[in-house]
Structure formats: C-alpha cells, structure tokens
C-alpha cells in the first residue's frame, strides 16, 4: 500500500510496524508530529503501547532506559536542544547495551536560537555510543526504523535514525507501507538477554572498578564496530522481503569519476542532481552517499574513494577547531589506507545548509568546480557565505 505522508509520519508508521511497546515522549519542533501521530495510533487501538508523557527529553530517555531494561521495545523522538539535554542518558543507554531506537529530526543547535535544519544536533552526539543512520527520503525514514530495531536488538547497541527537519519531516512524499506480517517475519519479538529477570537477581550498571572497566568498554566498542556486518545482514533480509536496498554507503556515477562529493541525508538528492548536470557537460563528477555514520564504514569508504584524484565532503554542521565531522571521518579513513601519501586523494571540506539555508544545485556545482581545479584548502569552505 502506498500513502502520501510527511517524513515524521513515515517514522511513526515505522514505529507502529515495529510493534513498539513503550513510548516516552516530549514534544519539540520539528519532531512533534511524530509524537502526535503515535498518540493517535495508541488512542485508536492500532498500536498496543504505553504512551508516557514526560517532563523533559532527559526524562524521555530515562524512561526508555527503564523500559528497555524490562525487555520492552522502546522508542522516542527529539531534536536539537532536546537531544542535547539527553546527552547524559545517551551515554547511559549505550553503556547499558540497551537496544533503544530514537528518531532525531535534525535541527540546528543554539545559540543563536534556530528551529531550522542542519546536522549539528546529531553530529554533536556522534560519540555517545549510538549507531547513526541518515535518511535521504521519507521511504528511507520508515524503513530505517524497522532496520534500526533489527540491528540494535542483534548487537545490543541503541540506534538513532536521523532525518532532516522540514525538508523531510514536514514534506510529503509517496511511501510504500509494508504489510505488518511481513515486518513481523524479519523483526521477531524482543528477547534481550540482559533484561531484568525476577528469578535471577542481579545488579544493573553498578559501579565497576578499574580492574574491569576497560574490558566493559572494549566490549561496547567491539559491539559497535561489529555492527557493520549486522547492518549488512539486516539490509539483505530487508531487501529480500521488500525489494529496497540500504547499503552502508551508496556510490553514484563513481566508475570513472575524477571528482567526488561525499554527503549524508536529504542533501544527497541535490548532489545527485548536480552530478547529472555536470555529466551532461562532460565533467566526470560522482557522489558517495553515507547512510551509516556510526559506526563509520571506513573500509568501504576507503575502497570507493581510493584512487579518486579530487574528493570533497559536504557537511551540514561545523565545529570550531575541528571543521566538518564527515570530512574528519573521510580524511581519517583515507589516511589509514596503507598506501603512500601520493596515493591518497586530498579531501576538501565544504560546509553548507547551516540553520536551514538552502543548498542549491549551483552551490554543489561550485563545490565540484573548486575541487576539480585543485583549489581545496585545509580549512572548510563555507558555501554561499555572504561577504
């Protein structure tokens, strides 16, 4: 069945199809439509879940932690300052190895105050131990919720499904809705081996002494890194069931590309249009879409980009003293390529779309022209910067 729906409602449908059992929610623009739709599903009896209205985003994640520890499938959604307020609890959920799934609708982090789109909120939490998946369109929003539960419950690591505010969250597209029974076939009932068992008393996330803390953190790190294989396996099952494929990264027009732009999220559609336009002009442009940002698929990125002479990265966030986070990851992946510096392409970082400013096809074409002419710099280049 196909329905016309906004990205937020696509997320809500993904949650309902995943048969989530506990929904702690706190509204914040631009994710509020997710919480509202889920409230309707519960009130109408379409989703058998406990809907909990909490007093803050910090409390929402704390409630998810409690629910997941009790072996319930839990979900919440947030944006921007709400995600920042959750920071402490994000670390706790990841360290406790709880398979929570959260949707983050990308909105700029203040100050100054801004309700529009960029990726500064999710990127600021990239090292809290959560898997991160960036959606390009509304279909991917729905499907990524289901896939996130498949992966998280297999590796016991929480997942964040990330979608662009307003560009996806409030924009309607045709979305194919899977049959509930078909989703059940690939997403079985949650069986967390670490959940509370009243017949087997034990402590949960107690004080861990120095003698064992390193080993605990190593297991957490290893689970996240090993999730790469699980993500690929879950993707293969999903493709077999529904015919839609979501690889870790997606090369576009890369076979003979002399200049490649790397991006994540809805902006990849704009980059694809720019690549098509440049190809019509005889310029060998290509794109690499990053869907899985955590864990970062270093080997796959290295494999695709090695030998490309000109590489640019388009970030929708920037951090003072560090630059764009995707550019950092791409540079690190290529640096550890095992080849001499002469075989490693120079990576130029671009920053655009901050605070909701549009990134146009001409902006992207300008980025391609810059790297094709070898005019890259070590500092990120801000697209459309006003003089």
What's the helix and strand layout?
Layout: E1 2-6, H1 7-17, E2 22-25, H2 32-43, E3 50-53, H3 57-69, E4 75-78, H4 80-85, H5 87-95, E5 101-106, H6 120-124, E6 131-134, H7 138-155, E7 159-164, E8 172-176, H8 180-186, H9 210-242, E9 249-252, E10 259-263, H10 267-280, E11 285-290, E12 292-294, H11 298-305, E13 310-315, H12 325-335, E14 346-351, H13 361-372, E15 381-382
Parallel strand pairs: 2-3, 4-5, 5-7, 6-7, 10-11, 10-13, 13-14, 14-15
Antiparallel strand pairs: 1-8, 6-12, 9-11
Helix pairs in contact: 1-2, 1-7, 3-5, 7-9, 10-13, 11-12
InterPro entries: PFOR_II, Pyruvate:ferred/Flavod_OxRd, Pyrv_Fd/Flavodoxin_OxRdtase_N, THDP-binding, Transketo_C/PFOR_II
Keywords: Oxidoreductase, Pyruvate
Pfam families: PFOR_II, POR_N
Helical percent range? 40-55%
What is the SS-derived class?
alpha/beta
Termini Cα gap? 50 Å
Question: What is the radius of gyration?
Answer: 21 Å
Give me the count of strands: 15
Backbone shape: globular
Strand order in the sheet with the most strands: 9-11-10-13-14-15
Q: In DSSP terms, counting alpha (H) and pi (I) runs of 4 or more, how many helices? A: 13
Averaged pLDDT, please?
Answer: 96
Largest sheet: 6 strands, mixed
The SSE order reads: EHEHEHEHHEHEHEEHHEEHEEHEHEHE
Contiguous low-pLDDT stretches (5 residues minimum) are: none
InterPro entries: PFOR_II (IPR033412), Pyruvate:ferred/Flavod_OxRd (IPR050722), Pyrv_Fd/Flavodoxin_OxRdtase_N (IPR002880), THDP-binding (IPR029061), Transketo_C/PFOR_II (IPR009014)
Domain Pyruvate:ferredoxin oxidoreductase core: 257-364
Protein name: Pyruvate ferredoxin oxidoreductase
Pfam family, one: PFOR_II
